[in-house]
Design brief:
2 domains; 275 residues; 9 strands; 48% helix
Length: 275
């Protein structure tokens, strides 16, 4: 259980500190921008029908679960963070969702009871390969024959894996494909998510640090500027980032409708069908 304790502690603490904003990136502008792209990709591969049953794996504070329920689906949200489940349950309104406190590898799910299963940036937080295998086995088992499993994760084209932090691991795309196929789900669709926005921000960040950052800091030290003027100068970077995201959105919207990928795209949607 040692590999699970640290991530659970992290997510509980994050929920206490950030509440409704504890899911996803803490950079709110970027999170809201990318969430729109994610939804475009997900809703392009699943068709929400009235009464269909959906399992939201790693539901967090319930953002996806509640939206899907408002669209007419019967939703079960599962998460191992007590604090996040508390927040999710407080948000239940006229569209009920069954929020369950459990890890996906241990939760008891009726076999073939869900039409669609969502795993939105969840499996990358299961650090142990053994726990990942158990989680995928449980997920595929709970999906009905012919049902869709949507996996949206940070993953690599090259066959390698690396721990990014005490709560996240970056695995290869091939590893996800192989483990789902081993459990009876075949890859049906693949999309590159938020490619243009992410790559543009990376390039801008490198250019900013290389050309501007050191000169900007030297300039602030050498000149006598008022506090509002300093604040204005420091605000240039965030404004440029917002502009980059705004300009890249149409391109990423278009990309979300295509079934293709780029080697340098590290956030991917993999859609599996249970056979």
């Amino acid at each position: 259980m040692s590999d699970q304790v640290e991530p659970k502690k992290y997510w509980n603490q994050r929920a206490k500190e950030y509440g409704l904003f504890s899911s996803g990136y803490l950079d709110r502008d970027y999170y809201m921008w990318e969430e729109e792209i994610r939804k475009r990709c997900v809703y392009d591969v699943i068709d929400i029908r009235l009464g269909m049953r959906i399992l939201d794996v790693g539901c967090g504070v319930g953002n996806w679960s509640l939206e899907l329920a408002s669209m007419g689906a019967e939703v079960v949200g599962v998460d191992f963070s007590e604090e996040m489940i508390k927040i999710a349950k407080r948000r239940i309104g006229k569209h009920p969702v069954n929020f369950v406190l459990a890890s996906v590898e241990e939760v008891e799910l009726e076999p073939e009871s869900f039409d669609t299963i969502l795993c939105i940036t969840v499996l990358q937080h299961i650090l142990s390969d053994e726990r990942l295998s158990a989680a995928v086995k449980n997920i595929v088992r709970a999906c009905r024959q012919g049902g869709i499993i949507v996996v949206l994760e940070s993953c690599l084209e090259k066959d390698t894996s690396s721990h990014l932090s005490s709560y996240q691991i970056l695995r290869s795309k091939r590893m996800y494909i192989d483990i789902f196929r081993k459990n009876g789900a075949q890859l049906e669709n693949e999309k590159c998510v938020a490619f243009f926005g992410r790559i543009s921000l990376k390039l801008y960040g490198r250019l900013y640090n290389l050309v501007y950052h050191s000169q900007y800091n030297d300039h602030l030290k050498s000149c006598s500027r008022t506090q509002p003027e300093r604040a204005r100068l420091r605000g240039i970077g965030p404004r440029i980032r917002k502009l980059i995201l705004t300009l890249s959105k149409p391109f990423d919207y278009h990309l979300s409708s295509l079934s293709r990928h780029f080697d340098s795209c590290d956030l991917k949607l993999l859609s599996f069908r249970k056979t």
